[in-house]
Specification:
heterodimer, A: mainly alpha, MetI-like fold, two-stranded antiparallel sheet, 13 helices, 73% helix, flat, B: mainly alpha
């Protein structure tokens, strides 16, 4: 095509052949777009692989348990002791709930407070200086926070307030998880607050309202969907957080049903890690290792449900403004 | 209102009364307290950060002053603290970062280019988008299950560095896609139209205009996700990082196909050893890990602040 166009007499009429473009160029164009499409479709392959690997082995676990005894092993009064064949799901779900509730008690005020300050009060200079604090905190690996929870939060905060608390306890785990998810809650909530149009604030000031009144009565209600999304996302992250609870919540061998945050406890994620790392000790009962997949499946669907709910709320904000 | 009585006492001029009414109460105490509370939420986070860093440095610095470089090059041990080091762990973490760069970056950026530049608004493409956002929210440990089932068992790699590296590349892939897509979306349409206007094809426009314009944003996102991969522990526990230490003899292939360890998993196994000597070692290893991840994060944040362009 390049040849013909250079040879072309400028007086010659523009024909269809000329408008079709260079076939080599078009072929390259198609190949490139195919390659990129492949990369995008790979994400679906990953999802299928995740769900497939979870389901396949989790069903194996259920089949083993069903043939060994009955479904009541999943609701055993002994608690969660996989090596002894006691797989009480409610024990580890309760442990996860205790840690997540404590984490939200920490992260909700810290995260929302930080978001409101950054979005409504801080001027640009202050923001440029304070925002990186949250970003650095978000960059701290969870294993580091786990160690910090064990060596500082547990003795200096938890055992200081509750003298009866054990060294390994769910309270310290919950506080550390709360610190971990604070940046996430703050950043999603800040986005929601900043997307509230300025005209609403100006209308409020025009009515003579103060800054605090405007923030609490106008901006916050207008951004409520985004705030709820931030909190749900925080809960989802807290439920899935692993290393902190694996290090500081104790009860690595298993736990009886407990709701006492000052004592040791087992969460879903911690149960998974202790099943995974003790692969030689876990042999115990048949189906012990496979229970890892069952817990994983449960965890996957719990967090998925929360993430989807959070996404809904975020979309609601976007639609409105 | 006390206007009447005060007017009787001091007899201010009417204009004074009006001015006073308009000015309102001078100091809004409640508002100031509220603002202070909000600021305190931020400062509490800062306080935790400072205590954490102080605590770790105070405990771990002795290891560096006493042993110097031998800690950084020494082999891992959970038995004798005096000779234990993080040499293999640092190397293992660098390998993990390399896997992320080699696998997650090109695929992630490619997927983002497809979704932002090529994909039409079809049901299937919308599904891909939702799927990626959900993948980004899947807990890290579930990716460990994926790695264990697919890479370790199904592909029969065994619990080797390759399996761990691929698992973490898969883990950060959705984050790479989402951040890159956001950077591409920020490039104004006019730049693309200018390219088409001079007869460039779609790929030519993307290659020489859209990608260079979005490069700082893409780079920020990719650096952050690499730092995330370096600090990730939970999935590696499932694909066998704790029990095996990195093979230091032999070529690169032997190392990739051998047992491995990384900094965070070394920290985890030391944190579980109750003796005080290992507590100092754990802190020292945390200093090394934080130096790596926080440097990466700082570079990413600086890059974004420096090149953040308002179109």
């Amino acid at each position: 095509m390049a040849d013909s166009s250079t040879m072309r007499n400028s007086d010659a009429p523009i024909d269809l052949e000329l408008l079709k473009g260079n076939p080599a160029r078009l072929r390259k164009e198609r190949t490139v777009s195919r390659i990129f499409q492949l990369a995008a479709v790979l994400s679906i392959v990953i999802s299928i692989a995740i769900i497939g690997s979870l389901f396949f082995e989790a069903l194996g676990f259920l089949r083993i348990r069903f043939s060994l005894d009955d479904i009541s092993a999943l609701w055993s009064p002994t608690g969660w002791f996989p090596r002894r064949g006691a797989f009480d799901i409610k024990t580890i779900v309760a442990g996860t709930m205790v840690v997540s509730v404590i984490a939200m008690i920490v992260a909700a005020p810290l995260g929302l407070g930080a978001a409101m300050y950054l979005s409504e009060y801080a001027n640009r200079r202050v923001r440029r200086f304070l925002k990186p604090i949250l970003e650095i905190l978000a960059g701290i690996p969870s294993v580091v926070l786990g160690f910090f929870a064990l060596t500082w939060i547990s003795p200096e905060i938890v055992q200081f307030i509750w003298s009866g608390a054990t060294r390994f306890n769910m309270m310290a785990a919950g506080i550390a998880v709360g610190i971990l998810i604070t940046p996430l809650v703050a950043s999603v909530a800040e986005d929601a607050l900043r997307s509230v149009p300025h005209s609403l604030r100006e209308a409020s000031y025009g009515m003579g309202a103060r800054k605090r009144t405007t923030t609490l009565k106008i901006v916050l209600p207008a951004a409520v969907s985004g705030i709820v999304a931030a909190l749900i996302l925080g809960v989802s992250r807290a439920i899935g957080e692993t290393m902190i609870v694996a290090i500081v919540s104790g009860a690595t061998a298993g736990s009886a049903f407990t709701l006492d945050p000052t004592g040791t406890g087992q969460t879903m994620t911690a149960a998974m890690t202790s099943l995974a790392i003790g692969s030689d000790q876990v042999r115990g009962q048949e189906g012990t290792f496979e229970s890892l997949y069952f817990v994983g499946l449960l965890l996957f669907f719990m967090t998925l449900a929360l993430n989807v709910a959070s996404e809904r709320f975020v979309r609601r904000v976007r639609q409105r403004y | 209102m006390s206007i009447g009585s005060s007017a009787l006492k001091k007899a201010p001029t009417p204009s004074d009364v009006v001015r006073k009414q308009l000015a309102g109460r001078r100091v809004d105490t409640g508002g100031l307290i509220f603002q202070a509370l909000l600021l305190m939420a931020l400062l509490t986070s800062l306080l935790f950060l400072l205590v954490l860093i102080y605590d770790v440095v105070a405990e771990g610095i002795s290891v560096f002053t006493e042993r110097g470089g031998t800690f950084l090059t020494g082999k891992l041990s959970v038995v004798t603290a005096s000779i234990a080091g993080v040499g293999q762990a640092i190397l293992g973490s660098l390998y993990i970062a390399l896997f992320v760069v080699v696998f997650a970056f090109p695929i992630g950026i490619g997927a983002a280019v497809y979704l932002e530049e090529y994909a039409k608004d079809t049901k299937f493409n919308r599904f891909i988008n939702i799927n990626i956002r959900n993948l980004a929210g899947v807990p890290a440990i579930v990716y460990g299950i994926l790695g264990l089932t697919i890479f370790v068992k199904l592909m029969e790699m065994g619990p080797v560095l390759l399996a761990g590296g691929l698992t973490l590349a898969v883990l950060v892939l959705p984050i790479v896609i989402l951040t890159s897509a956001e950077a591409l979306r920020a490039v104004p349409q006019s730049i693309r139209e200018a390219g088409y206007g001079v007869g460039a094809t779609k790929w030519e426009v993307i290659r020489s205009h859209v990608l260079p314009s979005a490069a700082p944003g893409i780079l920020t996102g990719t650096i952050l996700s690499m730092s995330r991969a370096i600090g990730e522990t939970a999935p590696l526990l499932l694909v066998g990082a704790v029990t095996g230490f990195l093979v230091t003899t032999g070529g690169i292939l032997d190392q990739i196909m051998g047992r491995y360890t990384t900094l965070p998993t070394a920290i985890y196994s030391w944190a579980r050893t109750p003796s005080d000597e290992f507590r100092a070692l754990t802190s020292a290893a945390i200093i090394v890990l934080l130096a790596m991840t926080l440097t990466a994060n700082a570079v990413a944040i600086l890059l974004r602040n420096r090149y953040e362009r308002k179109w």
